Amino acid sequence: MAATVLVTGGAGFVGSHICDRLIERGDKVICLDNFFTGRMANIAHLKDHSQFQLVDHDIVHPITLDADRIYNMACPASPVAYQYNPIKTIKTSTLGMINMLGLAKRCKARILQASTSEVYGDPIVHPQTEDYWGHVNPLGPRSCYDEGKRVAESLCMNYHLAHQLEIRIVRIFNTYGPRMDPNDGRVISNFITQALKGEPLTVYGDGSQTRSFCYVDDLVRGIMALMDQGIHTGPVNIGNPGEYTMLELAEQVLKATGSKSTIDFRPLPQDDPKQRCPDITRAKTMLKWEPQIPLAEGLEKTVHYYRQQLGIE
Ligand code: NAD
Ligand code: UDP
């Protein structure tokens, strides 16, 4: 029988792709979003589907509905967006998490929390394994996001221990692809829009910091495999271990767009992590998952989407 699945943050970049995959396999989807960073355009194609329901709601406030499974994706993910109203970001990851865990408890639903590589902060262990406790500045400008997500993980584990709630925690590493808001301020959306407009690419710092970029289809496949498996409760890294400096990424974007844009070096934001790369041994062994789409191929698909969005052929 088809499951009823609640996707919070379902109008966002990642959440909307999860809605698509669930509808494709015949589940009933309740997409809940407050449209802070989400966009109606991401779910417009689903709105008239008989198995799709949209709820305009903020998870910071309790809600009563029925679901068999919950993907808790709601939370701004771009540093620009989550630092816009840091207190609200903390409320979303704490009060919002409590509300979703309470809902899961009442419905006896399995709940998956979208955690992040940011729980590792500016990591000293490299690549990051799930048993690394992290290196987070609790007072810095990123702490509203990092510490909020750390509390959210703790809440999940404590609801599991106290109430036997079925929880899943995915630690998502930098993900990119179609439906990422061109204006959201993250590095790939910035570089591609700048390259397509012929503007300089804004590299923060000297561009030697690294990130590992996962194409959204790979990520969503991993997240759904984690939700569907019946045993493992602890956190699982999902990301692509291909690691690039921001200067290398800029070169890849110039190649993918055929742009002649120059590089404009800007100040490095405070507490910007110097390196980030997932150890995905756990996902490989437990979920039989690994990413399939290399950066060059993913960038090509993403550039195609941004050209359409920006009306640049
Ligand atoms: P996004 O900003 O595109 O999507 C987040 C969605 O949540 C948006 O639709 C937004 O409107 C909604 N939202 C925010 N606060 C809400 C609230 N209080 N109530 C209801 N809805 C709310 O970001 P994304 O990249 O799709 O990220 C989705 C999730 O994955 C987030 O929880 C994020 O922290 C996590 N994550 C993403 C990445 C990544 O690289 N994309 C990396 C690590 C973790
Ligand atoms: N960055 C950059 N130029 C930009 C936006 C970001 O050089 O226009 C850098 C940023 O300083 C960080 C990396 O790119 O080192 C990834 O930033 P993003 O905001 O995408 O995600 P983060 O991993 O920092 O949360």
Structural Rg: 19 Å
Please list the strands of the largest sheet in the order they lie side by side: 3-2-1-4-5-6-11
Q: What hetero molecules are bound to the protein chains?
A: nicotinamide-adenine-dinucleotide, uridine-5'-diphosphate
Architecture of the largest domain, according to CATH?
3-Layer(aba) Sandwich
Please mark out the parts with pLDDT under 50 across 5 or more consecutive residues, or reply none: none
State the end-to-end distance.
44 Å
Helices, by number, come to: 9
Strand content: 15-25%
Helix and strand run:
EHEEEHHEHEEHEEEHEEHEHH
The first-level CATH class name of the largest domain: Alpha Beta
Structural class: alpha/beta
Number of strands: 13
The CATH superfamily name of the largest domain is NAD(P)-binding Rossmann-like Domain
GO molecular function: isomerase activity; NAD+ binding; UDP-glucuronate decarboxylase activity
Family: Belongs to the NAD(P)-dependent epimerase/dehydratase family. UDP-glucuronic acid decarboxylase subfamily.
Keywords: Cytoplasm, Decarboxylase, Golgi apparatus, Isomerase, Lyase, Membrane, NAD, Signal-anchor, Transmembrane, Transmembrane helix
Organism: Planctopirus ephydatiae
